[in-house]
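Appendix C reproduces, verbatim, an entry submitted by the partner laboratory led by Prof. M.T., so that reviewers can inspect both the input and the predicted structure.
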Amino acid sequence: MSLAAAWSERLNPIVVKEVRQGLRTRVFWIFFGLMLLACLCISLVAWATASEMGFDGGRTFFIAFYVCLAVVQFFIIPYTAYRSMAREREDETWVLLTLTGLGPRRILRGKLSSFIVQGLLYGSAAGPFLLFCYYLNGIDLPTIALCVATGAAWQLFLTSVCVCTATLAEARITRALLHFVLLGGLLWGLVSGIASVAGFVEGARNLFGDDTFWAVALGTLWALVTYAVLLFEAAAARLSLPTEHYARGPRIAFVAQVLGALALFLWGWERSGRDVEVLVAAEIFICLHIAFIGMFVASDVDGMSRRHWAGSQRLNLLKPGALRGFIMTFMVLFIVCGALTALWLGRHGTDDKQLRAMLAAPAFVVLYLAAPAALARLFDHHPSQTPVLVRVFTLGLVMLGSGVPPLVAVLLGMEPDQPFLNALNPVVGMVNLAKDEVGWEAVMLLYGVAGGFTILALSMMYARDQKPKELAPA
């Protein structure tokens, strides 16, 4: 067997199918031809006006070329990916694909990879025009390379969002609503992507020597790629069977994303001056991220199988089930917050207000993840309904905790940010910790309530985990 034939055998058959099908469509050749025609026209304008614009014409024409590529990469390809996945659900051909034995993850990976290949084809066609701008002066090669890399990461993120959104559509009215929401999101993604690149190109000369810029750039690329992987794994888990280990991929992606973000932040923090106050803001931001993703990780179904807690499987937190996702989320939270707090103390932090904020941030996350998990299980319902019920309770408790205490304070004739009434308020409570009149009593109360709900949630999850029932994946 030749080398080309051997590689073709190793390729995902969905990639071959989708690429062949995509290259035969009118959409691909129409937009491919329009993009090349637009780039050719811009090149002729650049050649005709090069002597008039002087030595700074490269930036202007680079943005013009990039707009032509961005329309395809940030709108056409992601929307085509959404329609390809949604059509499988609408025409009920998804069952036929699963009968091939490839599995949801390989099928989705093949579809996503095929649209990445199409993006590479568009990018390779527009690449010579983007490189041509270097010879027009006004822009350097590192700026061009960084813009192309960021554009590829942004396309990967938008395509993953579209594929994941297509897996959410069950009823016809839901598909129609998601369709319009997705179109608006892609338009926003197109405009924001072009605006970001244009702003960066205009000020790139003053940014390359700044270590903070490189930390932000690497963090942005890491966030886009890891969010794309996380959304892909979530879509594959949603389409998997309850008997499969569908939780492994999303949880590994979640842990890798958080720990990688922590490592990048610490590297950038060391390079940019070691400002102690930045640690407080970073911890609050990471806690918000863990709270949002943890709401999905920790709200899995109960009773996935008693054998997952038997023998050598006892500590395997990658197995399905709410109890394992709950524990893993809290472990990641306390590892990250413990590292940042220890670093803050090691840098001779002496501000009690900042220390209270750093200690309270993970407690708020624990409270608003544990309380909904415990309260939702007080109601009699089928285990397959647990994920939706827990997420509804989470959003409801966050809204009640943010709005009710200030309203009660106003009705009682007090200030809206009264410290005692807002001790458990996720918004006002964090702001109050930066005030001198608020002491450690608020933090102790917060930890006491959060600890009580955590013990209650763990006991209820463990009890329900011992009762195997007919389940559906989250």
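The mean pLDDT is 82. Additional entries are available on request from the coordinating office.
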